[in-house]
Design a protein that fits this description.
This protein is α/β, with parallel strands linked by helices. 36% of the residues lie in helices and 20% in strands. The protein folds into two domains: 316 residues, Rossmann fold (3-Layer(aba) Sandwich), CATH 3.40.50.720; 156 residues, Alpha-D-Glucose-1,6-Bisphosphate, Chain A, domain 4 (2-Layer Sandwich). The radius of gyration is 26 Å and the shape is globular.
Length: 494
């Protein structure tokens, strides 16, 4: 089919495109700013069209010849009156789809009863009704909290649990019921309904296998993330409005997004038996702990965007993880990653510079402040870690999976990159990455990046404590590697 995706730069839309392409569909992506989609791994395999749901005429060309339109945008956090903007946008999509002869509209809304909703959830339901008021059959899927890196609800949960070992929360956090669902399962249903004509013209609820309170979800996150059980103290005086201001302080979510999200958390969002999508599309959804595990597997700054072919192969084989970050995810998503970046320039070729970088550690040491590295290794050994005694498998050859002092080699790609993952005892996960690029006039540029994903407050405090030492060690390390490569070239010339 020819599928039009409105909202391909969004959390769900950006991931859905890959799945639709893998299923053999033709995809047209509609965006107000098409340039924002240029860095997506599927950009070369889709048609990217300029269009705005608030401008009906701009939808005529993208909708021409389309079989299905996916409506995956909403104005929450972006418009002063998001309900009015969503209403007008839905009417434009509905009418433009009818005029173009589209056979179905697919819309992803929010779970919840039909009455007593927050303004945000009420708007999501209204959009579904506006779309369904036209002549084109609509399939409206309703979901609660979507679990995956980049999902606003998940990022709020992640930040609260990571930062606060003790939380004073509104009483509804311990009472309101929610049926979270993984992003993998959301994408499965969005694509699968195209093969089930009976789902047209229906409102269908999707959810994971568990119904929990928000307090339960926080404790599951803490357990999966390796954090101590959180102390959660409910009080009757925190209104949703006050809670949204507190979340804005503690988490990276902007207030315009936090407020409608928190307002929605006071309503039970559970799959209704008479609207359960399982009746039409039987599918085993994954439990919350597995969904969180997938969401924590990758961090934005470490993600290397795969090629389109690799993405499709992963979807086809079932090995893809749609919870991984993508380039258009908001800057506040993906977890807290602390970084220390250094640069150096060498007269050596990338091959020579790579030879020096890949020969680090073991008997050659760490190019300066050796005593600090030895002290760190001793501390690690005394606290039950591996210490610095492992050395290297080979003085020059480096392969992924090799132990290297208290690191493990993750990437050894000659002559471009070496990345080590820390195996010393840390309150988080650490990496040290070197990337080498040739310079136009000869020589090479070295970018050295130390990264640390802290675990809880202890991890954040650890990073602050060692930052002064990083200024000493990492600055010299990058310069010394470049200088060693220069000497290697000079000695060969002599």
């Amino acid at each position: 089919m020819r599928c039009v995706v409105i909202g391909a730069s969004g959390y769900v839309g950006g991931r859905l495109v890959t799945r639709l392409l893998a299923a053999g569909h033709e995809v047209v992506c509609v965006a107000r700013s098409p340039a924002n989609l240029g860095g997506m791994p599927w950009a070369a395999e889709v048609r990217i069209a300029q269009g705005d749901v608030l401008d009906r005429s701009s939808l005529e060309s993208p909708f021409s010849g389309a079989d299905v339109v996916y409506h995956l945008v909403h104005a929450m956090g972006g418009a002063t009156d998001f309900a009015d903007a969503d209403r007008r946008g839905a009417a434009n999509v509905r009418d433009a789809a009818a005029e173009a002869g589209v056979s179905r509209i697919v819309y992803l809304g929010g779970l919840g009863p039909d009455e007593g909703l927050s303004p945000h959830l009420a708007s999501r339901h209204e959009v579904g009704r506006v779309l369904a008021a036209g002549s084109v059959p609509v399939t409206e899927l309703r979901a609660a909290v979507i679990i995956g890196s980049g999902s606003a609800s998940f990022e709020m949960l992640r930040s609260l649990v990571e930062v606060l070992p003790v939380m004073v929360v509104p009483r509804w956090v311990t009472r309101t019921r929610c049926q979270p669902v993984s992003i993998r399962d959301v994408l499965f249903y969005l694509a699968a309904i195209l093969d089930v004509p009976e789902t047209a013209g229906r409102v269908l609820d999707i959810g994971g296998p568990e119904v929990l309170t928000y307090r339960d979800m926080m404790q599951v996150y803490a357990r999966v993330a390796g954090l101590p059980r959180r102390v959660i103290l409910p009080v009757p005086v925190l209104s949703p409005r006050l809670s949204s201001h507190w979340i804005n302080v503690v988490t990276p979510l902007p207030i315009g997004l936090a407020r409608p999200l928190v307002d929605s958390l006071t309503t039970d969002v559970v799959v209704r038996p008479d609207h359960d999508i399982q009746r039409w599309i039987p599918h085993t959804t994954i439990p919350l702990d597995e969904a969180i595990t997938r969401a924590l597997q990758r961090i934005r700054e470490l993600d290397v965007v795969t090629s389109w072919a690799g993405s499709v192969r992963a979807v086809s084989s079932g090995t893809e993880n749609p919870a991984d970050p993508i380039p258009t995810d908001p800057g506040w998503s993906g977890g807290a990653l602390r970084t220390d970046e250094r640069h150096a320039v060498s007269i050596a070729s990338p091959e020579d510079l790579y030879a020096v970088v890949s020969g680090i550690g073991g008997d050659r040491g760490w190019y300066g402040f050796g005593w600090l590295w030895r002290v760190r290794g001793l501390v690690d050994k005394l606290t039950g870690g591996v210490g610095m005694r492992r050395g290297r498998r080979h003085p020059d050859d480096l392969r992924p999976g090799d132990p290297l002092d208290f690191w493990r080699v993750e990437v050894a790609e000659r002559p471009r990159e070496v990345r080590l993952k820390a195996e010393m005892r840390l309150p988080g996960t650490g990496w040290l990455d070197w990337r080498i690029e040739p310079l136009p006039g000869g020589g090479s540029a070295l970018r050295q990046l130390a990264m640390f994903a802290p675990r809880g407050l202890v991890g954040r405090a650890y990073w602050l404590a060692v930052t002064p030492f990083h200024h000493l060690i990492f600055g010299r390390l990058a310069r010394s590697l470049a200088a060693a490569a220069d000497r290697r070239v000079s000695q060969r010339g002599n």
